[in-house]
Specification:
Radius of gyration: 23 Å
Structural class: mainly beta
Distance between the termini: 29 Å
Shape: globular
Largest sheet: 9 strands, antiparallel
Number of domains: 3
Number of helices: 3
Strand content: 25-35%
Length: about 450
């Protein structure tokens, strides 16, 4: 049974991303994963609509968390012999080039290893699932399944009778996860660094949690739509931050010598509507995220910004739905992405006949590498498909022009006899209680 719950809306092209001079967050082969429940293994009512992204870790090409050691001095690895049995050095390619805070160091045995801010990074052998920390898999919070090592994990069913997960194992002393977020950048009081999806970057925000922009021109004549970020009268310079006195007497924060502003048409955290409004105002990005060639963004009236292909056609993900579990489809960005569900569904859309004729994979080049939130899935015919935050991406023939999103919130429900047990839909992620699959526009 298919139900179309959403019709087309008008879109406005939005070609710009984060400030181009901000460093990339990751080099090729290094990815990003939210830790813990944000992976979405737990499909209970409480987590289906609210996935806290409290920590985002740097991860390897398979999404496994990276770590640093207090014992390693900057620029050198002392983890050898027995240490390497538990902590696997993350190899850098022979042609590795510095990317932002990333560089390659040479180990004593001659191998190249990636380093973050000069500290060598490793994978922990006890981590087997993306989003794991210290060997504690987030899959333990969800329905029964097998973890990445093939061991049974999780609980019976989603509803009731669930005991608390076993107590987490601690990390060995001196080891720390390599985190993109929370950021370690020191910022003045009243400013923060947060992920802003619409800017595809880590961005400076003010005390109202509004995105900040840097003036990059030569003569600052910002109009009324740009509000200067005020600095206290006694503000002292801090790292890349300093205060300047404007011609109107207002003391204003600068970042890397560029005055900071908020945009009046950004209303809530996550808005970045000032992108593209002025060529002289760019998002004040601390680090920008990788985007594949040919992927852009479009702005919609109801769903905010969505990913689009080179022709401006909306990109979709195939996701799992549970009728009783909160959902989140009424939220600004729809139901939050759950990377674990996306990985389980994979590159096969679980649709046949007419469905398979209408939906087409966003193919990746043969030499594509995972980077940032983007990974590469292998299809049954040997071709490669781009995946974003765990989900394979698709276009829809029902969209006739850039800006259409006629496939959004199109459902395939699996009903069974309501008097008896529900039919289980198991795509790797076990879903019970009137389960189904649906198509959703992919937000950045």
């Amino acid at each position: 049974m298919r139900t179309l719950l959403f019709l087309t809306v008008s879109l406005i092209a939005s070609p710009a991303f984060a400030a181009a001079d901000a460093p990339l967050a990751t080099p090729p082969g290094i990815t990003l994963q939210p830790l813990g429940k944000a992976q979405g293994y737990d499909l209970s009512k409480q987590t289906a609509a609210a996935l806290p992204r409290d920590e985002v870790a740097y991860t390897d090409a398979k999404g496994l968390t990276l770590y640093t050691s207090d014992k390693d001095p900057v620029g050198k690895s002392v983890c050898t012999a027995e240490c390497e049995l538990f902590w696997i050095p993350i190899a850098a390619p022979a042609n590795a080039k510095p990317v932002g805070a990333w560089s390659a160091i040479r180990r004593d045995d001659g191998r190249l290893q990636w380093a973050l801010a000069g500290k060598p990074v490793y994978r922990y052998v006890k981590d087997v699932d993306p989003g794991s920390l210290a060997g504690n898999s987030p899959a333990r919070t969800g329905a029964k399944r097998r973890d990445g090592a093939g061991n049974p994990i999780g609980y019976d069913g989603r509803m009731g009778g669930r005991r608390e997960p076993p107590k987490d194992d601690p990390l060995p002393e001196g080891w720390h996860p390599a985190l993109l977020y929370p950021s370690t950048l020191s910022v003045p009081t009243g400013l923060k660094v947060r992920e802003v999806a619409d800017a595809t970057a880590l961005v400076l925000i003010d005390h109202r949690e509004r995105t900040l922009y840097a003036f990059t021109g030569k003569r600052d004549n910002s109009g009324a739509e740009w509000e200067p970020v005020p600095a206290p009268q006694l503000a002292e310079p801090m790292g890349d931050f300093a205060a300047v006195v404007r011609s109107d007497g207002i003391r204003q924060w600068t970042y890397k010598g560029q005055p900071l502003y908020a945009y009046v048409n950004d209303h809530v955290y996550g808005d970045a509507n000032g992108i593209g409004v002025s060529k002289q105002h760019e998002v004040a990005a601390v680090a920008r995220y990788f985007m594949p060639a040919g992927v852009t963004m479009a702005r919609t009236a109801s769903q905010g910004k969505v990913l689009a292909n080179a022709k401006g056609m909306t990109l979709y993900r195939r996701d799992g739905n549970i009728w009783q579990s909160g959902g989140g489809h009424s939220l600004r960005r729809g139901q939050p992405a759950r990377p674990a569900v996306g990985r389980d569904i994979g590159t096969e859309a679980h649709c046949t006949e007419q469905c398979a004729k209408e939906w087409h994979p966003l193919l990746a080049p043969a030499d594509a590498q995972p980077q940032g939130y983007w990974t590469v899935g292998l299809r049954s015919d040997g071709s490669k498909q781009w995946e974003y935050q765990g989900y394979a991406l698709w276009t829809y023939d029902g969209d006739k022009k850039p800006g259409d999103m006629n496939g959004n919130d199109t459902y395939d429900f699996r009903f069974s006899n309501q008097a008896g047990p529900q039919k289980m839909l198991d795509v790797g992620t076990p879903m019970d209680g009137i389960p189904g699959l649906y198509w959703a526009v992919q937000a950045p």
